[in-house]
């Protein structure tokens, strides 16, 4: 497995792979790998000639006061895991190489970034879409792989790809969960044992909504109240948002008439976790 640090070098390498007629699958990550990342790498391995993983904790998608400094990092372990997953090439640029002095161009997707994490983390998606655009330009992948846990991120990236006529396919893969339902996240390692236990309420509250919809409940206000009440039974949980929205536009739903996305963000101590479930009508 090759490790490339310089943006210009990855650009040249990918250009020559394309000239050789190879298909390229890109898995953009911030490292601290878990099964969720590995599932994206394995799928990319199955669908492409060459698999490239980027590992870059992107400073511009963290607002001041967020967890950029404490975000988990373990490059040596990540490299070993990527190699075992059959990755051909990792791209590990420095922040200075990605955002050199004088950098001043950002990519902004509007509207679909207004709600959910966009409302609680102003500027976050501008940081994501800027780095993702740079990665797409450097690697020019045929396919890029994202996880459903970051559902809004994947919807924003799809919008970006459609709106800017980027020539690649976005592949969205299911959330990988621990045995007790907690969605795998690099941030889970920062939970204390008590917070880790309390965090089970996230998936439980999503499943509650799914079961209530299956049983015929259609009142979104009631469903949201029930989710909030369940989460609030955990003294360590502080709700950031609880939402029932349209899976395409991500706008809040008043009526349930078709598929919907139940999405939540909750803090446990210093750690903010997100999760979601796509719910279809029986
Ligand atoms: O989901 C992530 O890990 C990041 O937001 C991404 C897509 C790699 C951009 O920094």
TrEMBL record:
SUPFAM superfamilies: Nucleotidylyl transferase (SSF52374). Its main location: cytoplasm. The active site is at 37 (proton donor). It comes from Candidatus Methylomirabilis limnetica. Beta-alanine binds at residue 61. Homodimer. This is Pantothenate synthetase. It catalyses: (R)-pantoate + beta-alanine + ATP = (R)-pantothenate + AMP + diphosphate + H(+).
